[in-house]
Amino acid sequence: MSSQVLIEAPGTHRVEDHTPRDPGPGEALVAVHAVGICGSDREVYQGNRPDGYVRYPLTPGHEWSGTVRAVGAGVPATLVGRKVVGEGFRNCQVCDRCHAGETTLCAAGYEETGFTQPGAMAGTLTLPARLLHPLPDHADLTAAALLEPAACIAAAALRGGARPGERVAVVGTGTLGMFAVQFLKAMSPGELLAVGTGRDREEPARRFGATGFRTKDEELPGGFDVVIEAAGSASAARTAASLLRRGGRLVLTGIPAPGADGLDPTDLVVRQLEVHTVFGAPPDAWAHAVRVFGAGLLDPLPLVTHELPLTEFSGAIELVGAGDPKVGKVLLRP
User: Fold this and answer.
1) What is the pLDDT of residues 110-150, one digit of tens each?
2) 2-146+300-333 placed in CATH 3.10.120.10
3) Rounded Cα distance, 158 and 151, in Å
4) What is the residue extent of each domain of the chain?
5) Which of 281, 314, 280 is nearest to 121 (CA)?
6) Fold adopted by 151-277
7) CA 70 from chain center: how many Å?
8) Euclidean distance between CA atoms 6 and 308, whole angstroms
9) Where do the H-state alpha helices sit in 22-166?
């Protein structure tokens, strides 16, 4: 018998026996291999996620990997036995934005695995099969558990449209920033600068492909073609914009607290900066992340610092919130 985490209400959880739910028409049952914890899982546990973006009681877990064990009617039987990851947004598929491929903007309202629908902190997960992205047979499922945050950054890389030989930069050197460095490295840039809060992130940034490193308090160069902001701090957007050449392309992914310093509209207009934003990952970004991962150009494994059993959920949540620079990605194993 496997287990599952159930958050009954903010601050209250238990680990209980898990009973798999047989897949209905259009669904698949996945045996979960590993599930990541991110800041939003901590918000769910503490009760400070915005209204409408969580529904209790809840089994959390939106970053996961696993293997398909069974499928329902109308789903290709060839999926059974495949290693997979899966999209979290439960989009309606019939609204205007869904038809345009912009499923994270679905007009039907917010529904997401691990927030309003049962998540992957359990032995199995049953979900619509159309959300699955099969992985190569040789894929490392522990590494693949990080493909959800990678897909969000894949969306940013696609928006930035970096071309070979361009000067590119990343602001932020956490998990998302390190993914951004890897995606931009895969575009064969002429220069790749990483900007972080401290020197402790320089070695991993360079290992992932950065050709230069600065802390945000140092004097920063300019003239970059594309900058991806993946920090989410109050000043990160302005720092990122300052790096760009006239007509450069800025992609914002971080969500700072309300009231953060905004971009200067005069600066945007006079320098004709292109500003793009990303919230979540639509299907094309997921496909891009899986493709880059399958080709060996994306290596999530070094970002994992802790693997714990599902029963140590509360300890894992504390680790994620401790602010210790030695804590990278924390995974739970059912």
Assistant:
1) 999 999 999 999 999 999 999 999 999 999 999 999 999 99
2) no
3) 10
4) 2-146+300-333, 151-277
5) 314
6) Rossmann fold (3.40.50)
7) 26
8) 17
9) 39-46, 96-99, 141-144, 147-160
